[in-house]
Queue: 2 jobs
Job 1
Amino acid sequence: MRKIIWLAMLILPILSGCVWVKPITGPDGTQVYSIECNGAIYSMADCFEKAGEMCGSSGYHVINAGQDYTSTNLLYYTANPYQPYVNMPVNRFDRSLLIQCK
């Protein structure tokens, strides 16, 4: 049971992710926003929705948008001497959006 709890504690943050906004000053001194929508439960639509919330009815200009998918393996050790570890694939989804409000 403990192993399942530890495994869930490791995997849930990777799958859940979050949507967060970071204000950045652009090269010309204007305010731009970096929006990250990471995790398996989010999509680029969530990034665009957050951009709409940030800029309101004035709208926004997309400077850059990107998605990245990474697959890695998690090595999980067991107490079983005949199967000392389990190799478990873990997928990571990263999405970013850089916007400037109009």
Note: The first helix runs from residue 2 to 16.
Job 2
Amino acid sequence: MTQTHTTAHHTNIQIPKVSLLNFSQALDALKLGAKVSRQGWNGKKMWLKLVTSWSANLGQLPADYECLPWLAMKTADDKVVPWLASQTDLLACDWSVVVVSVPEQAPKVTLQ
């Protein structure tokens, strides 16, 4: 069973209503605004989120700069870092959509 989603950039994305996903399905979920995680990660409460806009707390983005989307990871110690997939992550079939039952306080990112 699948659920169809449509966004401004992607149409008819099929997200299976199953507990575990492959990376392609997890990436589709990220593009729809979901947080995803892997069972194979050692840290608890770690997840990924697609970042699509510049945060005001990072300062003003110069007009001639284009902010491209990137993947951020919330680490086990409540930090946020840019994330790159390993080959193991890309081939894993233990991805899942993170369901948050209570509102989480988003970690603040500051430049020093």
Note: Residues 48 and 76 are 12 Å apart (CA to CA).
